[in-house]
């Protein structure tokens, strides 16, 4: 613990030794209670016990620099290599010092480990200080929930198995937030994963599981049979209730089930974007006419050659391209083909269709390898076990503060929650509790490991628990109305509500209909701010 002084000039060496043994002028402004805590902590901390009782050791060696010394109040100091005096902090006081520096808005304002270490190491000292500072920062509840992740995102792409025949596996998704058109405000998009054949089915966002079952039976089961695999998002409509409705409509008592993959589906998302792009080109003058264009755009989409298969969905599904007005300008059917027997034509058709589909499967496999290589380049693998604590990206949950004004200032992660079940390497079931009534199944890319603060760090700052957008209870009591704005999507005025028993962090925007049980408060507010 001591540093030897070596110079060529013995007189200079002696002067340095004398300077090193002079206690630096330090000024510590602590109350008597805190000073007593420091002194008591020195006696209990084995790292400082010896130095606290006899700070100057090896006094017989005039070349030795005394690293430790006491001031007149009995506080122990450590002299670093630059002769700076740093206050020694016993183990019992270390959490308080780190807490003061880390959580104070005036000091480091929840800075990272390096910045906190830089601030503390100039003034304080204890053994393994940097290691403790890092642990303190990475276990901070506020930091974990408010800071974006600088690490590579979790979850590598695991391509789905390639189907062997059309409509063996389908992906489903909804395009929502559309203007009303002929009684519809959404589009159900279905895509066959082998041929890429798509169906664009006008529907409504209020459709129940039974309603979706009707669309499924009409547009998929009755046309192409029941798929063995469905890839969809985490929409709660895709539950056992959906399959019971399908069985009921097919008038069968046999248990119908299918492998459901509740995860991000890039294929259908790409089709959604293409459909939205096509719609914009035709509904600019009348956005409420989109449902009229959907059947025509579905036909146009299925005539296009798909990049991953090298053929059009129609060719792979039907074995031919449906005739279009352009075909009447040039009939490509040769006279020689008309003389071939029907049996020969049939054999050739089946063989050609099989070749096209096999070629499509090989092309899809090559595309999947390329996509996985590109996707996984900046990804890392991580496994969660049942019982692990995690945080969830707020965009995956509907909660009050994630919408409207101030959305930029919401925390980056919500939780902690407990892992309930590992479904596959990229999908987990999370125990959300009653406060979040949504679907509990999440893709790993929306999760982040939560590190609990050790008991030795004591009580620390933590963000308050947030309330779901759809409350667990049927009704909350309105305390006051504190603001209003015009919601373009809802085309009406919404009001910012303060709830009885909740603070400002739980304020939420509600419609006039939501406030039907508080007419007096609503009328009083409208009168006060001059709303008609």
TrEMBL record:
Keywords: Aspartyl protease, DNA integration, DNA recombination, DNA-binding, DNA-directed DNA polymerase, Hydrolase, Magnesium, Metal-binding, Nucleotidyltransferase, Protease, RNA-binding, RNA-directed DNA polymerase, Transferase. GO terms for biological process: chromatin remodeling; DNA integration; DNA recombination; proteolysis. This is Uncharacterized protein. Residues 476-532 form the Chromo domain. SUPFAM superfamilies: Chromo domain-like, Ribonuclease H-like. Residues 162-321 form the Integrase catalytic domain. The keyword Magnesium applies. SMART domains: CHROMO. InterPro entries: Chromo-like_dom_sf (IPR016197), Chromo/chromo_shadow_dom (IPR000953), Chromo_domain (IPR023780), Integrase_cat-core (IPR001584), Integrase_H2C2 (IPR041588), Retrovirus_Pol_polyprotein (IPR050951), RNaseH-like_sf (IPR012337), RNaseH_sf (IPR036397). It comes from the Eukaryota. Pfam families: Chromo, Integrase_H2C2, SH3_Tf2-1. One of its GO terms (molecular function) is RNA binding. GO terms for cellular component: nucleus.
């Amino acid at each position: 613990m001591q540093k030897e002084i070596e110079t060529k000039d013995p007189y200079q060496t002696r002067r340095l030794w004398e300077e090193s043994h002079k206690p630096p002028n330090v000024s510590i402004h602590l109350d008597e209670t805190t000073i007593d805590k420091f002194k008591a902590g020195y006696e209990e901390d084995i790292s400082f016990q010896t130095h606290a009782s006899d700070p100057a050791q090896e006094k017989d060696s005039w070349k030795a620099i005394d690293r430790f010394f006491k001031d007149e109040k009995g506080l122990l100091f450590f002299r670093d290599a630059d002769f700076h005096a740093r206050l020694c902090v016993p183990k019992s006081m270390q959490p308080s010092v780190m807490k003061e520096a880390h959580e104070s808005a005036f000091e480091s304002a929840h800075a990272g480990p390096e910045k906190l270490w830089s601030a503390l190491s100039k003034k304080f000292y204890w053994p393994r200080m940097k290691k403790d500072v890092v642990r303190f920062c990475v276990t901070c509840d506020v930091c974990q929930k408010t800071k974006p992740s600088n690490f590579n995102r979790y979850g590598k792409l695991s391509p789905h198995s390639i189907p062997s025949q059309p409509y063996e596996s389908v992906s489903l998704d909804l395009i929502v937030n559309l203007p009303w058109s002929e009684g519809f405000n959404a589009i159900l998009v279905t895509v066959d994963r082998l041929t890429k054949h798509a169906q664009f089915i006008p529907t409504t966002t209020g459709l129940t599981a039974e309603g979706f079952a009707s669309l499924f039976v009409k547009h998929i089961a009755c046309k192409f049979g029941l798929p063995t695999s469905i890839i969809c998002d985490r929409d709660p409509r895709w539950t056992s209730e959906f399959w019971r409705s399908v069985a009921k409509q097919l008038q069968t008592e046999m248990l119908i089930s299918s492998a459901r993959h509740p995860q991000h589906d890039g294929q259908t998302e790409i089709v959604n974007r293409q459909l939205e792009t096509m719609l914009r080109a035709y509904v600019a003058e009348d956005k409420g006419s989109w449902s009229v264009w959907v059947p025509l755009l579905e036909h146009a989409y299925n005539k296009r050659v798909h990049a991953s298969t090298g053929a059009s969905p129609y060719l792979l599904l039907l074995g031919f391209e449906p005739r279009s007005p352009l075909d009447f300008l040039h009939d490509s059917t040769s006279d020689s083909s008309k003389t071939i027997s029907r049996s020969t034509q049939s054999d050739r058709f089946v063989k050609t269709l099989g070749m096209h589909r096999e070629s499509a499967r090989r092309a899809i496999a090559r595309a999947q390898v390329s996509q996985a290589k590109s996707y996984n380049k900046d990804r890392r693998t991580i496994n969660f076990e049942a019982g692990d604590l995690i945080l969830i990206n707020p965009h995956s949950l509907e909660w009050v503060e994630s919408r409207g004004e101030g959305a930029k200032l919401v925390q980056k992660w919500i939780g902690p929650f407990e892992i309930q079940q590992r479904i596959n390497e990229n999908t987990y079931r999370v125990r959300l509790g009653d406060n979040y009534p949504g679907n509990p199944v999440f893709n790993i890319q929306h999760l982040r490991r939560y590190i609990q603060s050790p008991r030795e760090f004591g009580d620390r700052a933590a963000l308050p628990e947030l309330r779901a957008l759809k409350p667990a209870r049927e009704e909350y009591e309105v305390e006051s109305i504190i603001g209003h704005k015009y919601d373009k999507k809802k085309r009406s005025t919404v009001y910012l509500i303060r709830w009885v028993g909740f603070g400002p962090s739980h304020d939420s925007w509600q419609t006039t209909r939501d406030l039907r049980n508080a007419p007096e408060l609503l009328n009083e507010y409208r009168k006060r701010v001059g709303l008609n």
